[in-house]
Amino acid sequence: MSTNIELSKTRDFGEIISDSFLFIRENLKPLLTCFFTFCGFFMLATIVLSYLEQTKMLGAMNTLGGDPNSFDTQTGPFAVFSRLLGVEYLFLIFFMFLNWTTMVVTVISYMAVYKAKGNIPPTTVEVWGYIKYYFFKIMGTIILTGISTALGFVCCILPGIWLYPILALIVPIIIIENTSFGYAFSQSFRIIKENWWATFGALFVIGLIASILVSVIVMPFGAANILTTFLHPNKGIHLNPTLTFISSVVNEIGHVFYILPLVTLTLCYFNLTELKDATGLMDRINKLGNNDADNTNLPVEEY
Predict the structure, then answer these.
(1) CA 95 to each of CA 25, 39, 91, 143, 171: distance values in angstroms, whole numbers, following the listed order
(2) What is the pTM of this model?
């Protein structure tokens, strides 16, 4: 029997992990419907561009593996390297970024609407309303937080590790509280205070699980591709075009597992706000004795 999961509640480390899987299991069909509806185009574009880039890279690698006397001003190592960073590569990076942004906005918007409806799965139309409103705001946020985290890792790695869970919370704060980047930035530092380790631990463990799951489904195709080179050494560096394309498809579809860390991130947000402000408890108290049927479907007010 399906259960409606209460998002705004305190959770310990183990409950955050288990409830992440539980939420996905109980919302699997509507969540995947939203995911593929809004991310499908960018996933398809990424698959095609990834295949083209890998094919182009294979051609360059074969050039490097050819006759050493063949290197000239047009086919030397530097010329080959410059050919790799062509139009296909730039478009690939661009669509990968758009795909990731859409994934982030879709999953967190789904959970925001889920909460606003009283823990009821939303429709694609309801989630689309959030995506249209927050997409470009979250795109800018991801760029800013990404640069900040990268700079932190450059500064002896530890600052980047420390900033990672703090900056990651900015996105759910913006979407769920409908607020600005500046407020979300300060809010993330406030709510994670004294709970950094639990938040980091949950995100790290779930992120590791998701990465392993993706690797498991992609690795066989990559291994088979490498094996073709050893089976046909006379062809030089050789990759099977069919396997290369299938690998690109499987790798992109495997990104569905990254729904898991996004759900965990949002549960961490709800856990931290409940610990600091008891927002969910106060909301339930305010609803006591309120049996007005006309108000049952109204979104929760934010103060």
Answers:
(1) 29, 11, 6, 14, 20
(2) 0.84
| Greater pLDDT, 283 or 199 | 199
pLDDT, the chain, mean: 84
CA trace torsion 132, 134, 136, 142 (10° rounding): -140
Which residues are CB-contacts of 263 (< 8 A; sequence separation ≥ 6)? Answer: 20, 23, 24, 107, 111
Q: State the burial class of residue 78 (Cβ atoms within 10 Å of its Cβ: 0-12, 13-18, 19+).
A: exposed
Distance, CA of 94 to CA of 101 (rounded, Å): 11
Both tokens of 196, joined, read 């950094």
Burial 246-273 (b: 16+ CB within 10 A, else e): ebbbbbbebbbbbbbbbbbbbbbbbbbb
Report d(CA 143, CA 101) in Å as an integer.
10
Q: Which two tokens stand for residue 155?
A: 């500064």
Q: Tell me the H-state helices in the chain.
A: 13-26, 28-64, 77-84, 87-116, 124-154, 158-168, 170-177, 181-192, 196-231, 241-253, 259-277, 279-287
CA distance to 94, 171, 231, per residue, from 139 (Å): 12, 10, 45
Residues 72-100: tens digit of each pLDDT: 445 555 555 556 666 778 899 999 999 99
Give 14: exposed, middle or buried? Use CB within 10 Å, 0-12, 13-18, 19+: exposed
- Other Cβ atoms less than 10 A from the Cβ of 225: the count is 20
Cα(206)–Cα(296) distance, integer angstroms: 34
Measured CA to CA, the distance from residue 109 to residue 129 in angstroms comes to 9
Q: Which residue has the tokens 């089976």?
A: 231
Tokens representing residue 302 in the block: 């934010």
